[in-house]
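To the wet lab folks,

You asked to see what we're planning to order before we commit. Fair enough. Below is the target structure as tokens, and below that is the sequence we designed to fit it. If anything looks off to you, flag it before the synthesis order goes out.
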């Protein structure tokens, strides 16, 4: 689907293929896609986000994988740039800023504590600014984020609920939000629809 001039496809869970000549893939998991990525973004080292087998499926010899340091052991042998929150890198003319992704709700805190080092990313990709939130709750660092497209988890349990994700669209400046993290490990399309009902910006639910 064309969104803000970019071709964006949801491949399930937190996996998106974003392209306009150059190809960016986020958290590849359970991949059946044959398209190869120029850049792969990994949010953290849980098996459904950092899957070496799936990263290899979407990689060619020039692919650069961007990941937090907690992924070092599972990405051995791959061309990887490791980042910490606050780091900024330019990779193949794409500017990438690492931002925090963590839980604050007590029911979820054991999954992604702040010191665990999970990441989201703000990416300047072919003229558009994207925010890939990773596995996170609604956190103070979201305030003031200014992007064209935000990819936000909505299923609860391990990440924000639909209600929290909608609140995130109110503290950020975002043109379009695309829900993720449902329909596979946890959550359903109803979570995405609930998010769309409550969000303060345009929401596109990808099939």
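Sequence we intend to order:
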């Amino acid at each position: 689907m064309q969104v803000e001039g970019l071709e964006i496809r949801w491949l399930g869970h937190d996996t998106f293929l974003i392209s306009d000549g150059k190809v960016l893939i986020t958290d590849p998991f359970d991949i059946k896609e044959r398209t190869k990525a120029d850049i792969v973004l990994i949010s953290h080292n849980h098996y459904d986000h950092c899957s070496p087998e799936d990263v290899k499926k979407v990689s060619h010899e020039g692919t650069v994988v961007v990941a937090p340091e907690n992924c070092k052991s599972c990405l051995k042998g791959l061309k990887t740039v490791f980042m910490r929150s606050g780091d900024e890198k330019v990779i193949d003319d794409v500017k990438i800023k690492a931002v925090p992704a963590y839980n604050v709700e007590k029911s979820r805190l054991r999954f992604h504590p702040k010191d665990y080092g999970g990441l989201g990313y703000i990416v300047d990709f072919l003229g558009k600014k994207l925010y890939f939130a990773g596995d996170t709750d609604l956190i103070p660092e979201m305030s003031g984020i200014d992007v064209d497209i935000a990819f936000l988890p909505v299923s609860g349990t391990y990440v924000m609920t639909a209600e929290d994700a909608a609140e995130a669209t109110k503290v950020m400046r975002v043109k379009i939000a695309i829900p993720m993290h449902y329909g596979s490990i946890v959550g359903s399309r109803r979570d995405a629809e609930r998010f769309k009902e409550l969000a303060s910006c345009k929401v596109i639910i990808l099939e």
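Structural context that might help your review: The first helix runs from residue 52 to 57. The radius of gyration is 15 Å.

Thanks,
Computational group
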